[in-house]
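User: Thanks for the earlier help. One more: Pseudouridine synthase. Can you show the sequence and predicted structure together?

Assistant: Of course, both are below.
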Amino acid sequence: MRLQKFLADAGIASRRKAEELIAAGRVEVNGKTVREMGYLVDPQKDEVKYLNRIVKPSAKRIYLMLNKPAGCVSTCHDESGRKTVMQYVGDIKERLYPVGRLDFTTEGLLLMTNDGALTNALTHPKHNVPKKYLAVLDTEITEQELEKLAKGVVLDDGYKTAPCVLKLLSASAARSEILCVISEGKNRQIRRMFQAIDKNVRYLKRVAIGDIKLGNLKKGSYRMLTKEETDYLKKFICL
């Protein structure tokens, strides 16, 4: 088994993040630091350590959704000492990690698991899993401006966004509510999209990932996914 897959299956990190940990020299196999991508390990014979702790494969798969509050980061650790989403799932013994990220100031649906294969599938660009957000602006927005955003706009780094779906829910001189559905995952993408037309997003909440809906889950709380929800997500592994 490849080392990065072993780490992902053990719930250390997603496969891509595991590759970063290996490249950074944070993983040992049988007492030796390994930086080689694709290094093969035998889970039954080899001793793998991360941060000087023995890594063991997780026997139980966990799939849950968290209603992430604003003011915390979507990572397992934060070098700046900021609050992380891990504190909201602290009663779960299995080691989990977030599937993708939500910005520090963004709320809403965040999937968490210890299934590395699923995380890799859901975060892979080729699958384009649609994500639905509620965005609140501190100003009025017109249908013409929404049409411009829906066709794709150029962000501050020169990247042009793919077409998306936008629906105006309400609008006034001091407040506009828009439902946004995007299939990309660029850093702070929705906020930057609106910035491209000189609009400021005051509040942002992710309400759905594909067919998985946040519903009325209380902020800061989590629930396990149903079998139907898990089966839906696992379809992306086979695509």
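User: Great, one quick takeaway?

Assistant: The mean pLDDT is 91.
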